[in-house]
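Per your request, structure below.
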């Protein structure tokens, strides 16, 4: 019968052994050899102590880590950069729906603009589904030509076309038992749509050039960056396939409709890239937040992520100011000036100019170079105007 000895007791045994061994060796004729062995045993003792400390730290953090895992079922196997971030009510509702859907075998259709995180949602469904340990393959329908996508999806038999010297299994065979994610499924041709519809309905497919159908057990998740209902009306997408795909429709709102999530995402990605590039986490000024909240984010979360990486890599100081932002993020704020209406009584231009210059200097903490960039003028021109307006 084996007796399990606690780690702390094991260390005590080793310490006693080392002490007795050292005492014995140092009182015999082999003094020099004894010192060498004692040195070796001392090194072993240090290594064991370090291993014990690491084990104790690991056990102490085990419950804490388990609690963190249980807080978010969607991020338990994802890295920091792949966590679903947001407090927008529409996103919370989507995640609650996702948690119920993930445990089923239902086909899911995710609709959202480019960069909203459709593949991230698909991976969250996978990680919380019974097929989480099975294969997961993403097929970007827009990246492959029609002639190639059929053979890649269904496979082909030997001699099916020129160069097909051996038979090849397709993606459906490779993902059998797992999950297949069709990204940008709206790019599929009508001919491929017919064959995909048959597979979804029957679980059977015919490789290119083959005469015998094969079977595969695959869960389908699809994503589109366009309105499939409009494509159905235009005759560009099959209505029957649309119905089969949209058993559970999930809609991801664009970032411009989730303004309250902008700051959370900025803090998340700045923290991630600071860790990645081993630098201090940037601090975002309130002026920068105001500009980014007003921005329309045509590239959605992907664009915001790229901006955070850009600013983390090329920043000079820790605090990020408006002058650090690329020009395109200031254009929308400047374009809004076109909608300012001139009062009927006119205005005092020198006072208006002085007010604008004063605001620019306040935003940049009195730094003329940065203020001149905000105002779109040279530094010398700013000096002249501030002197004329008696701002300084």
């Amino acid at each position: 019968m084996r007796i399990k000895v606690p780690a702390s007791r094991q260390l005590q045994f080793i310490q006693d052994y080392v002490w007795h061994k050292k005492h014995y060796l140092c009182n015999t004729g082999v003094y020099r050899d004894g010192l060498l062995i004692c040195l070796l045993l001392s090194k072993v003792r240090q290594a064991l102590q370090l291993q014990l400390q690491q084990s104790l730290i690991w056990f102490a953090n085990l419950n804490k880590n388990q609690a963190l895992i249980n807080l978010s079922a969607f991020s338990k196997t994802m890295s920091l950069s792949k966590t679903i971030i947001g407090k927008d009510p529409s996103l919370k509702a989507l995640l609650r729906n996702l948690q119920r859907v993930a445990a089923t075998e239902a086909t899911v259709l995710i609709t959202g603009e480019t960069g909203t995180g459709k593949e991230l949602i698909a991976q969250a469904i996978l990680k919380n589904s019974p097929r989480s340990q099975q294969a997961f393959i993403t097929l970007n329908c827009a990246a492959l030509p029609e002639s190639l996508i059929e053979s890649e999806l269904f496979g082909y038999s030997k001699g099916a076309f020129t160069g097909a010297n051996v038979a090849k299994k397709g993606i459906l065979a490779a993902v059998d038992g797992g999950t297949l994610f069709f990204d940008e499924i709206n790019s599929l041709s009508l001919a491929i749509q017919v064959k995909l519809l048959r597979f979804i309905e029957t679980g059977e497919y015919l490789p290119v050039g083959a005469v015998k159908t094969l079977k595969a057990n695959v869960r389908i998740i699809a994503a589109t960056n366009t309105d499939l209902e409009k494509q159905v009306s235009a005759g560009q997408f099959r209505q029957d396939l649309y119905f089969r795909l949209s058993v559970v429709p999930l809609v991801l709102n664009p970032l411009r409709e989730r303004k309250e999530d902008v700051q959370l995402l900025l803090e998340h990605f700045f923290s991630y890239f600071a860790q990645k590039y081993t630098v201090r986490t940037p601090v975002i000024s309130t002026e920068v937040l105001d500009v980014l909240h007003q921005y329309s984010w045509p590239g959605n979360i992907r664009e915001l992520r790229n901006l955070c990486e850009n600013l983390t890599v090329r920043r000079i100081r820790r605090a990020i100011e408006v002058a650090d932002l690329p020009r395109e993020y200031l254009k929308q704020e400047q374009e809004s000036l076109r909608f300012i209406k001139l009062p009927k009584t006119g205005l005092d231009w020198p006072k208006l100019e002085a007010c604008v210059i004063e605001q620019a200097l306040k935003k940049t903490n009195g730094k003329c170079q940065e203020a001149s960039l905000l105002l779109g003028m040279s530094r010398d021109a700013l000096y002249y105007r501030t002197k004329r307006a008696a701002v300084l």
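The chain has a mean pLDDT of 80.

Regards,
D.
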